[in-house]
DNA sequence: CAAATATGTTGGCCATATGCCAAACATATG
DNA sequence: CATATGTTTGGCATATGGCCAACATATTTG
Protein backbone atom coordinates (compact mmCIF):
# COMPACT_ATOMS: atom_id res chain seq x y z
CA UNK A 1 0.00 0.00 0.00
CA UNK A 2 2.85 2.40 0.77
CA UNK A 3 4.66 1.68 -2.46
CA UNK A 4 3.64 4.96 -4.02
CA UNK A 5 6.46 7.04 -5.42
CA UNK A 6 4.42 10.13 -6.18
CA UNK A 7 5.48 9.93 -9.80
CA UNK A 8 2.67 7.71 -11.02
CA UNK A 9 0.63 10.36 -12.77
CA UNK A 10 1.27 12.87 -15.51
CA UNK A 11 0.85 16.57 -14.70
CA UNK A 12 -2.64 16.86 -16.11
CA UNK A 13 -3.90 13.75 -14.42
CA UNK A 14 -2.67 15.14 -11.12
CA UNK A 15 -4.81 18.20 -11.77
CA UNK A 16 -7.80 16.02 -12.44
CA UNK A 17 -7.42 14.11 -9.21
CA UNK A 18 -6.87 17.20 -7.12
CA UNK A 19 -9.99 18.73 -8.59
CA UNK A 20 -12.05 15.61 -7.96
CA UNK A 21 -10.82 15.54 -4.39
CA UNK A 22 -11.68 19.16 -3.73
CA UNK A 23 -15.05 18.91 -5.39
CA UNK A 24 -15.96 15.63 -3.75
CA UNK A 25 -18.67 13.16 -4.71
CA UNK A 26 -19.87 12.58 -8.22
CA UNK A 27 -18.40 15.17 -10.57
CA UNK A 28 -19.58 15.87 -14.09
CA UNK A 29 -16.95 15.62 -16.79
CA UNK A 30 -18.14 19.02 -17.97
CA UNK A 31 -17.29 20.56 -14.61
CA UNK A 32 -13.81 19.21 -15.06
CA UNK A 33 -13.49 20.59 -18.56
CA UNK A 34 -14.67 23.98 -17.36
CA UNK A 35 -12.29 24.01 -14.43
CA UNK A 36 -9.25 22.76 -16.31
CA UNK A 37 -10.14 24.74 -19.40
CA UNK A 38 -10.13 21.90 -21.88
CA UNK A 39 -12.69 20.61 -24.31
CA UNK A 40 -15.34 18.33 -22.75
CA UNK A 41 -14.18 15.55 -25.03
CA UNK A 42 -10.70 15.92 -23.63
CA UNK A 43 -11.81 15.51 -20.04
CA UNK A 44 -13.90 12.49 -20.96
CA UNK A 45 -10.89 10.88 -22.53
CA UNK A 46 -8.55 11.63 -19.70
CA UNK A 47 -11.08 10.35 -17.21
CA UNK A 48 -11.14 7.17 -19.25
CA UNK A 49 -7.41 6.84 -18.74
CA UNK A 50 -7.72 7.47 -15.03
CA UNK A 51 -10.52 4.94 -14.76
CA UNK A 52 -8.12 2.43 -16.27
CA UNK A 53 -5.79 2.93 -13.32
CA UNK A 54 -8.55 2.28 -10.81
CA UNK A 55 -8.25 5.69 -9.23
CA UNK A 56 -11.64 6.89 -10.43
CA UNK A 57 -14.93 5.35 -11.40
CA UNK A 58 -16.73 6.73 -14.40
CA UNK A 59 -20.46 6.33 -14.81
CA UNK A 60 -21.08 7.44 -18.40
CA UNK A 61 -23.37 10.44 -18.76
CA UNK A 62 -23.50 10.66 -14.99
CA UNK A 63 -20.15 11.64 -13.66
CA UNK A 64 -16.88 10.59 -12.11
CA UNK A 65 -15.94 9.81 -8.57
CA UNK A 66 -12.71 8.88 -6.82
CA UNK A 67 -12.42 5.27 -5.75
CA UNK A 68 -11.18 4.50 -2.27
CA UNK A 69 -7.66 4.15 -3.62
CA UNK A 70 -8.08 7.32 -5.64
CA UNK A 71 -9.24 9.22 -2.60
CA UNK A 72 -6.13 8.32 -0.64
CA UNK A 73 -3.92 9.07 -3.55
CA UNK A 74 -5.60 12.40 -4.21
CA UNK A 75 -5.13 13.29 -0.58
CA UNK A 76 -1.43 12.73 -0.99
CA UNK A 77 -1.45 14.89 -4.12
CA UNK A 78 -3.17 17.76 -2.34
CA UNK A 79 -0.85 17.48 0.63
CA UNK A 80 2.15 17.46 -1.65
CA UNK A 81 0.90 20.56 -3.36
CA UNK A 82 0.33 22.32 -0.07
CA UNK A 83 3.64 21.34 1.44
CA UNK A 84 5.62 22.43 -1.61
CA UNK A 85 3.73 25.69 -1.83
CA UNK A 86 4.39 26.35 1.82
CA UNK A 87 8.06 25.66 1.29
CA UNK A 88 8.27 28.10 -1.60
CA UNK A 89 6.41 30.74 0.35
CA UNK A 90 9.30 30.66 2.81
CA UNK A 91 11.55 32.00 0.09
CA UNK A 92 9.77 35.21 -0.71
CA UNK A 93 7.14 33.91 -3.09
CA UNK A 94 3.61 35.12 -2.48
CA UNK A 95 0.87 32.60 -1.84
CA UNK A 96 -0.36 32.90 -5.40
CA UNK A 97 3.13 32.66 -6.87
CA UNK A 98 4.01 29.67 -4.73
CA UNK A 99 0.79 27.92 -5.61
CA UNK A 100 1.14 28.57 -9.32
CA UNK A 101 4.79 27.58 -9.35
CA UNK A 102 4.09 24.39 -7.47
CA UNK A 103 1.29 23.46 -9.83
CA UNK A 104 3.80 23.43 -12.63
CA UNK A 105 6.28 20.99 -11.17
CA UNK A 106 4.59 19.12 -8.31
CA UNK A 107 3.93 16.01 -10.37
CA UNK A 108 7.67 15.42 -10.52
CA UNK A 109 8.43 15.57 -6.82
CA UNK A 110 8.64 12.20 -5.12
CA UNK A 111 6.70 11.22 -2.04
CA UNK A 112 10.01 10.43 -0.37
CA UNK A 113 11.16 14.02 -0.82
CA UNK A 114 7.82 15.44 0.27
CA UNK A 115 7.89 13.35 3.42
CA UNK A 116 11.33 14.68 4.30
CA UNK A 117 10.33 18.27 3.62
CA UNK A 118 7.19 17.79 5.66
CA UNK A 119 9.12 16.34 8.56
CA UNK A 120 11.73 19.06 8.35
CA UNK A 121 9.02 21.71 8.55
CA UNK A 122 7.56 20.02 11.62
CA UNK A 123 4.42 18.72 9.98
CA UNK A 124 2.63 22.03 9.55
CA UNK A 125 -1.15 21.93 9.62
CA UNK A 126 -1.82 24.69 7.13
CA UNK A 127 -0.23 25.95 3.97
CA UNK A 128 -0.70 29.03 1.88
CA UNK A 129 -3.30 27.24 -0.16
CA UNK A 130 -5.14 24.93 2.14
CA UNK A 131 -5.02 22.64 5.11
CA UNK A 132 -2.63 19.72 5.35
CA UNK A 133 -3.73 16.29 6.54
CA UNK A 134 -0.91 14.19 7.93
CA UNK A 135 -2.05 10.76 6.94
CA UNK A 136 0.04 9.76 3.98
CA UNK A 137 3.08 11.58 5.35
CA UNK A 138 5.20 8.70 6.57
CA UNK A 139 7.57 8.67 9.51
CA UNK A 140 7.90 11.52 12.01
CA UNK B 1 17.79 39.86 -23.18
CA UNK B 2 16.33 39.31 -19.73
CA UNK B 3 13.03 38.03 -21.07
CA UNK B 4 13.81 34.45 -20.19
CA UNK B 5 11.19 32.65 -18.16
CA UNK B 6 13.21 29.52 -17.51
CA UNK B 7 10.45 27.44 -19.08
CA UNK B 8 11.73 27.58 -22.64
CA UNK B 9 13.17 24.10 -22.80
CA UNK B 10 11.80 20.62 -22.30
CA UNK B 11 13.34 18.47 -19.55
CA UNK B 12 15.62 16.53 -21.83
CA UNK B 13 16.88 19.60 -23.64
CA UNK B 14 17.77 21.09 -20.28
CA UNK B 15 19.89 18.03 -19.62
CA UNK B 16 21.61 18.43 -22.94
CA UNK B 17 22.49 22.04 -22.29
CA UNK B 18 23.74 21.41 -18.79
CA UNK B 19 25.94 18.63 -20.07
CA UNK B 20 27.32 20.77 -22.87
CA UNK B 21 28.03 23.50 -20.36
CA UNK B 22 29.86 21.22 -17.97
CA UNK B 23 31.82 19.50 -20.68
CA UNK B 24 32.73 22.70 -22.48
CA UNK B 25 34.03 23.16 -26.01
CA UNK B 26 33.16 20.92 -28.90
CA UNK B 27 31.29 17.85 -27.67
CA UNK B 28 30.65 14.71 -29.68
CA UNK B 29 27.04 13.67 -30.03
CA UNK B 30 28.13 10.23 -28.92
CA UNK B 31 29.41 11.62 -25.64
CA UNK B 32 25.98 13.06 -25.11
CA UNK B 33 24.23 9.81 -25.91
CA UNK B 34 26.52 7.95 -23.53
CA UNK B 35 26.00 10.44 -20.74
CA UNK B 36 22.23 10.74 -21.14
CA UNK B 37 21.85 7.07 -21.93
CA UNK B 38 20.01 7.40 -25.20
CA UNK B 39 20.67 6.06 -28.66
CA UNK B 40 23.21 8.12 -30.64
CA UNK B 41 20.52 8.81 -33.22
CA UNK B 42 18.38 10.30 -30.50
CA UNK B 43 21.04 12.73 -29.37
CA UNK B 44 21.73 13.76 -32.94
CA UNK B 45 18.08 14.55 -33.45
CA UNK B 46 17.67 16.46 -30.23
CA UNK B 47 20.79 18.44 -30.98
CA UNK B 48 19.17 19.29 -34.28
CA UNK B 49 16.20 20.73 -32.41
CA UNK B 50 18.46 22.71 -30.11
CA UNK B 51 20.43 24.03 -33.06
CA UNK B 52 17.14 25.32 -34.41
CA UNK B 53 16.75 27.48 -31.32
CA UNK B 54 20.19 29.00 -31.77
CA UNK B 55 21.43 27.72 -28.44
CA UNK B 56 23.93 25.31 -29.95
CA UNK B 57 25.91 24.96 -33.13
CA UNK B 58 26.22 21.56 -34.70
CA UNK B 59 29.07 20.68 -37.02
CA UNK B 60 28.01 17.34 -38.51
CA UNK B 61 30.36 14.46 -37.79
CA UNK B 62 32.43 16.81 -35.64
CA UNK B 63 30.46 17.81 -32.61
CA UNK B 64 28.28 20.36 -30.90
CA UNK B 65 29.09 23.53 -29.06
CA UNK B 66 27.06 26.11 -27.17
CA UNK B 67 26.59 29.43 -28.89
CA UNK B 68 27.11 32.61 -26.91
CA UNK B 69 23.40 32.73 -26.16
CA UNK B 70 23.41 29.05 -25.31
CA UNK B 71 26.29 29.52 -22.93
CA UNK B 72 24.48 32.18 -20.94
CA UNK B 73 21.30 30.18 -20.92
CA UNK B 74 23.10 27.03 -19.83
CA UNK B 75 24.69 28.97 -17.03
CA UNK B 76 21.25 29.89 -15.82
CA UNK B 77 20.18 26.26 -16.06
CA UNK B 78 23.13 25.08 -14.00
CA UNK B 79 22.58 27.79 -11.43
CA UNK B 80 18.91 26.93 -11.19
CA UNK B 81 19.79 23.31 -10.64
CA UNK B 82 22.29 24.20 -7.94
CA UNK B 83 20.02 26.63 -6.14
CA UNK B 84 17.09 24.24 -6.09
CA UNK B 85 19.29 21.38 -4.93
CA UNK B 86 20.68 23.53 -2.17
CA UNK B 87 17.18 24.46 -1.11
CA UNK B 88 16.10 20.83 -0.92
CA UNK B 89 19.20 19.90 1.00
CA UNK B 90 17.99 22.24 3.72
CA UNK B 91 15.03 19.95 4.25
CA UNK B 92 16.83 16.76 5.11
CA UNK B 93 17.58 15.50 1.64
CA UNK B 94 21.11 14.29 1.06
CA UNK B 95 23.18 15.89 -1.67
CA UNK B 96 22.50 13.00 -3.99
CA UNK B 97 18.80 12.93 -3.25
CA UNK B 98 18.46 16.67 -3.67
CA UNK B 99 20.36 16.61 -6.92
CA UNK B 100 18.36 13.73 -8.32
CA UNK B 101 15.07 15.19 -7.21
CA UNK B 102 15.91 18.56 -8.71
CA UNK B 103 16.87 16.99 -12.00
CA UNK B 104 13.37 15.68 -12.31
CA UNK B 105 11.47 18.94 -11.94
CA UNK B 106 13.92 21.80 -12.49
CA UNK B 107 12.78 22.45 -16.04
CA UNK B 108 9.42 23.57 -14.68
CA UNK B 109 10.67 26.12 -12.19
CA UNK B 110 10.60 29.71 -13.42
CA UNK B 111 13.55 32.05 -13.37
CA UNK B 112 11.42 34.48 -11.37
CA UNK B 113 11.01 31.89 -8.62
CA UNK B 114 14.65 30.89 -8.72
CA UNK B 115 15.71 34.52 -8.38
CA UNK B 116 13.55 34.92 -5.30
CA UNK B 117 14.82 31.73 -3.74
CA UNK B 118 18.37 32.76 -4.51
CA UNK B 119 17.88 36.17 -2.95
CA UNK B 120 16.17 34.68 0.07
CA UNK B 121 19.12 32.36 0.62
CA UNK B 122 21.52 35.30 0.44
CA UNK B 123 23.06 34.42 -2.91
CA UNK B 124 25.06 31.41 -1.78
CA UNK B 125 28.27 30.70 -3.66
CA UNK B 126 28.19 26.93 -3.49
CA UNK B 127 25.56 24.25 -3.55
CA UNK B 128 25.57 20.55 -2.83
CA UNK B 129 26.34 19.84 -6.44
CA UNK B 130 28.54 22.63 -7.68
CA UNK B 131 29.43 26.27 -7.57
CA UNK B 132 26.91 29.01 -8.24
CA UNK B 133 27.66 31.97 -10.47
CA UNK B 134 25.55 35.03 -9.74
CA UNK B 135 25.27 36.50 -13.18
CA UNK B 136 21.81 35.68 -14.39
CA UNK B 137 20.35 35.99 -10.92
CA UNK B 138 18.54 39.33 -11.15
CA UNK B 139 18.03 41.81 -8.33
CA UNK B 140 19.73 41.66 -4.94
C1' DC C 1 46.89 5.94 -50.22
C1' DA C 2 43.29 2.56 -50.04
C1' DA C 3 40.72 -0.62 -47.60
C1' DA C 4 38.81 -1.70 -43.22
C1' DT C 5 36.89 -0.05 -39.03
C1' DA C 6 34.79 3.15 -36.13
C1' DT C 7 31.84 6.96 -35.58
C1' DG C 8 27.93 9.84 -36.68
C1' DT C 9 23.53 10.90 -39.26
C1' DT C 10 19.12 10.06 -41.68
C1' DG C 11 14.68 8.11 -42.38
C1' DG C 12 11.15 5.37 -40.89
C1' DC C 13 8.52 4.10 -37.34
C1' DC C 14 6.66 3.89 -32.52
C1' DA C 15 4.82 5.47 -27.89
C1' DT C 16 2.95 8.78 -24.58
C1' DA C 17 0.59 12.87 -23.35
C1' DT C 18 -2.51 16.37 -24.62
C1' DG C 19 -5.70 18.62 -27.27
C1' DC C 20 -9.46 19.98 -30.68
C1' DC C 21 -13.50 19.21 -33.80
C1' DA C 22 -17.49 17.10 -35.65
C1' DA C 23 -20.66 13.59 -35.37
C1' DA C 24 -23.17 10.30 -32.77
C1' DC C 25 -25.51 9.31 -28.81
C1' DA C 26 -27.96 9.75 -24.16
C1' DT C 27 -30.62 12.28 -21.01
C1' DA C 28 -33.71 15.68 -19.58
C1' DT C 29 -37.50 18.84 -20.40
C1' DG C 30 -41.38 20.83 -22.21
C1' DC D 1 -42.33 12.18 -27.66
C1' DA D 2 -39.68 15.74 -29.71
C1' DT D 3 -36.31 18.78 -29.08
C1' DA D 4 -32.60 20.91 -26.47
C1' DT D 5 -28.72 20.05 -23.74
C1' DG D 6 -25.05 17.47 -22.19
C1' DT D 7 -21.66 13.68 -22.98
C1' DT D 8 -19.02 10.52 -25.54
C1' DT D 9 -16.72 8.65 -29.71
C1' DG D 10 -13.69 8.73 -33.58
C1' DG D 11 -10.59 11.06 -36.25
C1' DC D 12 -6.90 13.79 -36.36
C1' DA D 13 -2.98 16.93 -34.78
C1' DT D 14 1.14 18.46 -32.05
C1' DA D 15 5.18 17.96 -29.00
C1' DT D 16 8.49 15.17 -26.82
C1' DG D 17 11.36 11.42 -26.76
C1' DG D 18 13.01 7.03 -28.34
C1' DC D 19 14.69 2.91 -31.24
C1' DC D 20 16.57 0.47 -35.40
C1' DA D 21 18.50 -0.18 -39.89
C1' DA D 22 20.70 1.92 -43.58
C1' DC D 23 23.74 5.25 -45.10
C1' DA D 24 27.60 8.78 -44.81
C1' DT D 25 31.85 10.35 -43.04
C1' DA D 26 36.29 9.91 -40.48
C1' DT D 27 40.02 7.52 -38.84
C1' DT D 28 43.13 3.96 -38.69
C1' DT D 29 46.06 0.78 -40.54
C1' DG D 30 48.31 -2.20 -43.78
Description:
- Two copies of one chain form a homodimer.
- By secondary structure, chain A is mainly alpha-helical.
- Chain A has two domains: 11-66, Orthogonal Bundle (Arc Repressor Mutant, subunit A); 71-131, Arc Repressor Mutant, subunit A, CATH 1.10.10.
- The first copy, chain A, contains six helices and four strands.
- Chain A has helices spanning 11-23, 29-35, 40-53, 68-89, 95-105, 111-120; strands at 56-59, 63-66, 126-127, 130-131.
- A two-stranded antiparallel ribbon of chain A has the order 1-2.
- Chain A starts with 10 loop residues before the first helix and ends in a 9-residue tail after the last strand.
- The mean pLDDT of chain A is 95.
- The A-B interface holds A 7, 87-88, 90-93, 97, 101, 104-105, 108-110, 112-113, 116-117, 119-121 and B 7, 87-88, 90-93, 97, 101, 104-105, 108-110, 112-113, 116-117, 119-121.
- Chain B binds a DNA duplex (30 and 30 nucleotides) through residues 10-13, 28-30, 38-42, 44-46, 48-49, 60-62.
Labels describing this entry:
140 residues, homodimer, DNA-binding, Arc Repressor Mutant, subunit A, two-stranded antiparallel sheet
Q: Assign a percent range to the helix content of chain A.
A: 55-70%
Strand content of chain A: 5-15%
How many β-strand stretches of chain A?
4
Overall geometric form of chain A: globular
Per DSSP, the total helix count of chain A is 6
| Contiguous runs where pLDDT drops below 50 for at least 5 residues of chain A | none
The CATH fourth-level homologous superfamily of the largest domain in chain A: Winged helix-like DNA-binding domain superfamily/Winged helix DNA-binding domain
**If you average the pLDDT of chain A, what whole number results?**
95
The quaternary structure here is homodimer
CATH topology of the largest domain in chain A: Arc Repressor Mutant, subunit A
CATH architecture call of the largest domain in chain A: Orthogonal Bundle
Q: Could you name the CATH class of the largest domain in chain A? A: Mainly Alpha
Q: How are helices and strands ordered from N to C of chain A?
A: HHHEEHHHEE
Amino acid sequence: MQDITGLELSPKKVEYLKFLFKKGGLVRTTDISTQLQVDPSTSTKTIGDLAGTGLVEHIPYRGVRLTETGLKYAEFLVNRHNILSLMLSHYGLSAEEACKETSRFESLVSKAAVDKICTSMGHPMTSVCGKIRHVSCGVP
